[in-house]
Design brief:
- With 228 residues, this protein is α/β, with parallel strands linked by helices.
- The chain has six helices and five strands, in the order H-E-H-E-H-H-E-E-E-H-H.
- It has one domain: Collagenase (Catalytic Domain) (3-Layer(aba) Sandwich).
- The longest helix has 18 residues.
- The structure holds zinc ion.
- Zinc ion binds next to helix 5.
Length: 228
């Protein structure tokens, strides 16, 4: 059964070694949760962060990624995209979320978001947020996966010993999918697929890989309601 199927993190980091190479390809229809043009800022996407450890260093990186996206959106004259992330403790624990993340991660690269995929757990629907970010205890493949019928996303961030800038950019990359962004065949940009981040991410300073004009255009459509 699924309850014993997920592996706990190990010392090695096979998922991180692959980095973005096998991220789930998520290319949903553009279904904005909020229409920014008519009601700027009125409907910020809520982000619920799930982790077993309140000291988890990835929590701060989610906040940084949220700031990055809100700064990028407002810099384009669009409303902010996300509300401040909130730490959430599900009443029945993280197991259903970890199991679901494991299932999706195992299917990475083989499942398109138009396919039904595994059934999301009830616990996921119970979280009152448009974006549920699991800071997983597993060394799995990161992804952003749509669920439900109103533009919600389940995002999984792997455990492991990847450099902080890699983790930071993985989180921002996945939140980019939430905002309707797609993969670009430019190895050094945030929405890269495949990616070559070795040089950009070897720096000690926190930084995000750049967005492109194509990203800006998609953000304008998604957040600003500009017709394609
Ligand atoms: Zn991706």
């Amino acid at each position: 059964m699924a309850t014993d199927s997920f592996k706990v993190r190990t010392g090695s980091a096979p998922a991180w070694t692959a980095f973005f190479a096998a991220l789930l390809v998520v290319a949903p229809a553009i279904v904005p949760v909020a229409s920014g043009s008519d009601s700027p800022g009125a409907q910020l996407r809520r982000i619920a962060v799930l982790t077993a450890d309140v000291q988890d260093g990835r929590i701060g990186m989610v906040d940084e990624a949220v700031s990055f996206w809100n700064g990028s959106a407002t810099g384009l004259g669009l409303g902010a995209a996300f509300a401040d992330a909130e730490f959430v403790t599900p009443p029945k624990g993280l197991r259903p979320f970890e199991n679901y993340a494991h299932q999706l991660s195992q299917l990475a690269g083989r499942l398109h978001s138009s396919a039904p995929g595994p059934e999301p757990p009830e616990a996921l629907f119970a979280v009152e947020a448009e974006v549920v970010v699991l800071l997983s205890a597993q060394n799995l493949m990161p992804f952003a996966w749509p669920y439900g019928e109103d533009g919600r996303y389940f995002v999984a961030v792997p455990a492991g010993d990847a450099p902080e800038n890699v983790v930071r950019n993985v989180i921002a990359h996945e939140l980019g999918h939430v905002l309707g962004l797609k993969h670009l065949r430019e190895p050094g940009v945030l929405m890269c697929q495949p990616c070559d981040t070795s040089r950009a991410l070897s720096e000690g300073q926190p930084r995000f890989l750049p967005l492109t004009e194509a990203d800006h255009e998609r953000l304008r459509i998604f957040l600003g309601g500009t017709p394609p």
